[in-house]
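Appendix B. Raw example, untouched.
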Amino acid sequence: MRAFIWLFAAGCVGIPVRPALSHQVIKGLSASDLFDAAARATAAGKSGEALAMYRALANDPDLEVRSEARFRMGGLLTRLGREPEAARAYRAILDEKPNATRVRFELARLLERMGDEAEARRELRQVRAVPLPADVAMFVDRFADALRSRKPIGGSFEIGFAPNSNINRATDARILETVIAPLTLDDAARAQSGVGVEGSGQAYLRWPLSDEVNVVPRVSGEGEFYRKSEFDDVSVSAQAGIEWHAGKDRITPSAGRTWRWFGGKPYATTDTLSAAWVHSLGPRAQLTLRGGAGQASYKFNRLQSGGLYNVSATAEFAVSARTGVGGSLGATRQSARDPGYATTSGYVSLFGWREAGPMTVYASSTLRRTLGDARLFLFDDRRREWFASVSGGVTLRQLAVAEFAPFVRVTLERNFSTVGIYDYRRMKAQVGLTRAF
C-alpha cells in the first residue's frame, strides 16, 4: 500500500509531495522553515507543536501552502487516532481544490476506517470522475473492490429544529363528504402547524466471521417532538444482519423489528425480513437493489394490520469531482384486514448534490402513485392518490464547530387523494447539525 501511495502522489493532479512553497514570513519564519520545524517536531514525538505549526500554515494566503499544511495535518491526526479532525482537514482542502484526487482518496480511506463504507465508496466514485493515469486508476479500482468497513463499533446522529405547516399530515378541510352525511372535523383532526425538534441516529456492532463475512446488529431511531405532545412521532428499530463482501458486490440480509409511538402511545410494530445488494456498475456508478417483507400490527386500528412488501432500485453516478446524481424506482404493497386500508404504490425519485466551496448543496424530488383495494366504509370512493415532494438544502461547513456543521433544508409536499381525509399539503423547514465531512 505504501508503494501505491507514492505512485498515487506522483501520478495524480492534486497535492504534490513537496509543493513550491511561498516565502511569506510567519512569526519570523518562512513557510518552508515552518514545514521543516513541524517535521522535526513530529519526528521528536512533539505532535502538539507540529499541529500548532500546521494550523498556522493552514491560514497562509498561498493556496498550495495551506493545502500542504492541511494534508500533513490530516496525516498526523490520522496516526494519532483523531479521525474526525483528520477528515475535516482533508475536506477543507477539497473545498478549495475539488480535483485534488489524492486528498479525496485519503478521505475515502479515512471514512472506511471510521466505518462509513457508503460515503467512502461515494468519494472513490468522485475520484474516478477526474481523468487519472491508467496505472493510478487501476490501483483506485482495486482499492474500491477490496473496500469494506472493519470498524467494530460505530454510529451517527443528526438533530435540528423543524418549523412545519402540517405536523400530522392531515387535511385542512373543515367538512368531508361521506356516504352517511357531511362530517365536520374538529381542530385536532385537521392540519396542525408547529415548531418541533427532530433527531435521528444509529449505532452498530460488527463481529467478523471471516474476511468476507461480518455479523452486524444495529439499533436506529428517529423522532419528532412538538409542544403539542399528542403529535410526537417516535420510531425505534433493532436489526441483526450479515454483511457479505464478494468482489464488487456487497449483500446484506437482515431481520428486525420496528416500534412506533404517536402522541406518546404505542402506534404500531413491524417485523421485517430484508436484503440489499450493492453492485458497482463501473468506476463512477453504483446500483443498489433492496427488497423486504414484513408484518405490521397497528394498535389504534387493527383493521389496518397486514403484510408489507417492498422492492427498490437506486443508481448513483459521479458526474465530476464535485457533482453527483442518482435516481430510484420502487414499489410497495400493503395488505390489511380491511381491504379499504390495503394499497399498492409505486414511486420514482431523483436526487443530486454539488460541492460548492465549503458548502454542499443538494436537492431531491419524488412522485408516487397509490391505489387502494377498496373503499373505506365512510367514503364513496377507494383511495387513488398522487403524492409529490420537492426538497432542497445546504450543509455549511464554513460554520462547522468541532465535528459538526449546520444544515438548512426545506421540503414541500402535496398529496392529492380521492379520499378527503388523506388529501393534504405541507411545508417543512429544518435547521440543525450534521457531520462536517
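End of appendix B.
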